[in-house]
Design brief:
- By secondary structure, the protein is of the alpha+beta class.
- The protein has helices at residues 29-42, 45-56, 84-100, 103-108, 158-187, 190-200, 205-212, 216-229, 235-244; strands spanning 16-17, 60-65, 77-80, 114-117, 128-139, 142-151, 155-156.
- The protein has 2 domains: 16-177, 2-Layer Sandwich (Beta-Lactamase); 188-244, Winged helix-like DNA-binding domain superfamily/Winged helix DNA-binding domain (Arc Repressor Mutant, subunit A).
- The two termini are 23 Å apart.
- GO terms for molecular function: DNA binding.
- Keywords: DNA-binding, Transcription, Transcription regulation.
- This is DNA-binding CsgD family transcriptional regulator.
Length: 248
């Protein structure tokens, strides 16, 4: 994703980049592996992201899901230690950029560090740069972005940034995959999952009935059961739940 959508009154000062050969270590790879192993054992995404943030030399992290950015509230934020108001404000800009970019542009942005400025009205801690780095990554069929805030005049490693994005995707996948499989097997039947998939594709009950070869009333019963099990009140809420939990 091209994050150059942020309005810039002056040309942004790009963080300095450095070659790993020259050092400037923040967290060694050995230390990172140890921290990530602990995070994996605890199935904790925040623990993993905190380790990766320190590894790359950043101060704050924000992991978001693009497919939920336009939902109300802050459900698009998977994990973050950014100030609450800043997360809410940046969500509007991320949604706008996501809508404007093509699928081809989004694919080109995969694991490529992109730099943009926070909105002028964002209340930023004094020691941090207003410029942030965005890394787009995929976990299964879910597209996410890791946004990192750095101290002023930090020296960055392009290789470490890409490595951080790759490891972030791996850690998220590892921490949720077991729980999601268990939830899917325990809570929803295969037929309920089929109905959930088709309503997520925008199909009506009549269309789903024709696709699956069963009656419309039966389809509605399955959908009602899905909403009861997922504690949702509408089909839209059920779809949002399914997307958040990688059920469709």
């Amino acid at each position: 994703m091209d994050v150059s959508f942020v309005k810039e009154t002056t040309a942004p000062r790009r963080p300095l980049l450095y070659d790993d050969q020259r050092g400037l270590e923040n967290l060694t790879r050995e230390q990172l592996v140890t921290r990530l192993a602990r995070a994996s054992a605890a199935e904790s995404i925040p623990m993993a992201l905190s380790a990766l943030t320190e590894y790359v030399g950043a101060s704050l992290y924000l992991l978001v899901r693009y497919d939920l950015i336009q939902e109300q509230g802050l459900d698009f934020a998977v994990s973050s230690n950014w100030p609450f108001d800043m997360v809410r404000r940046i969500g509007q800009d991320l949604a706008l950029a996501h809508v404007k970019s093509s699928e081809f542009e989004r694919c080109l942005a995969f694991l490529q560090p992109r730099f943009a400025l926070l909105p002028d009205e964002a209340d930023l801690p004094e020691h941090l740069s207003r410029q942030y780095c965005s890394l787009t990554l995929n976990v299964g069929r879910t597209r996410l972005a890791l946004l990192l805030l750095f101290p002023d005049d930090v020296v960055l490693s392009p290789e470490r940034l890409r490595e951080t994005g790759l490891l972030a995707g791996y850690c998220v996948s590892q921490s949720v995959s077991t729980r999601q499989r268990a939830d899917r097997e325990f809570e929803l039947t295969e037929r309920e999952l089929e109905c959930l998939y088709w309503i997520a594709e925008g199909k009506t009950s009549d269309e789903i009935a024709m696709i699956l070869g069963i009656s419309r009333n039966t389809i509605n019963n399955y959908i009602t059961s899905v909403m009861r099990k997922t504690a949702t009140k509408t089909r839209s809420e059920a779809i949002a739940y399914a997307v958040r939990n990688n059920l469709v």
